[in-house]
Specification:
Radius of gyration: 15 Å
Protein name: N-acetyltransferase family protein
Largest sheet: 7 strands, mixed
Organism: Dyadobacter psychrotolerans
GO molecular function: acyltransferase activity, transferring groups other than amino-acyl groups
CATH superfamily: Gcn5-related N-acetyltransferase (GNAT)
Number of strands: 7
Structural class: alpha+beta
Keywords: Acyltransferase, Transferase
Domain N-acetyltransferase: 3-165
Strand order of the largest sheet: 1-2-3-4-5-7-6
Strand content: 35-45%
CATH class: Alpha Beta
């Protein structure tokens, strides 16, 4: 597959919006309930860029088929070396290596930025995502029972972590 991983641009926001809204409305990959507007997604993108956080896309045949990003894990100065990442793909792009390319790029960017730790918060029922993260060296570090609620059910979260700082 001819796949390009690159920094997202404002022109990519309609595709990013379509991907995230599908996840919001049909999955427990994200615990939001309401579809986002283009204005909301644009504000998110501008804040990410202004904060120096990456937003990247996977492009195939000049079409955005997935995106990824990370942001500081928690808004306290002591957490500045740890980030929580997110990757979302369109339905037709799962299981063909797109997510791995996005995650690999985010890991590399984290290393180059001097970050120490990447964290994934994953719906515990999403075994595919948990196994995917294990392939890239993430280790399960926590399990929180019934902390989310969506689609009329309580949801558990698995926290996974990768130490990205390269050893000297």
């Amino acid at each position: 597959m001819d796949l390009i991983i690159r920094n997202a641009a404002p022109k990519d926001l309609p595709s990013i919006l379509e991907i995230i809204n599908h996840a919001i409305l049909t999955t427990t990959a994200i615990y939001d309930y309401d579809a986002r507007t283009l204005e909301e997604q644009t504000a998110w993108f501008e804040k990410m860029i202004n904060d120096g956080m990456p937003v990247i896309v996977a492009e195939h045949d000049k079409r955005v088929i997935g995106y990824g990003s990370y942001n500081i894990f928690r808004p306290k100065v002591g957490y500045r070396f740890s980030v929580e990442h997110s990757i979302y793909l369109d339905d037709k792009s799962r299981g063909i290596g797109v997510g791995g390319k996005l995650l690999g790029s985010l890991i590399q960017r984290a290393r180059e930025s001097g970050l120490h730790s990447m964290i994934g918060a994953i719906d515990a029922a999403n075994r595919g995502s948990i196994e995917f993260h294990k392939k890239y060296g993430f280790i399960e570090k926590g399990y929180l029972r019934e902390v989310g609620y969506k689609f009329d059910q309580w949801l558990d979260v698995v926290y996974m972590q990768l130490i990205v700082e390269e050893e000297e």
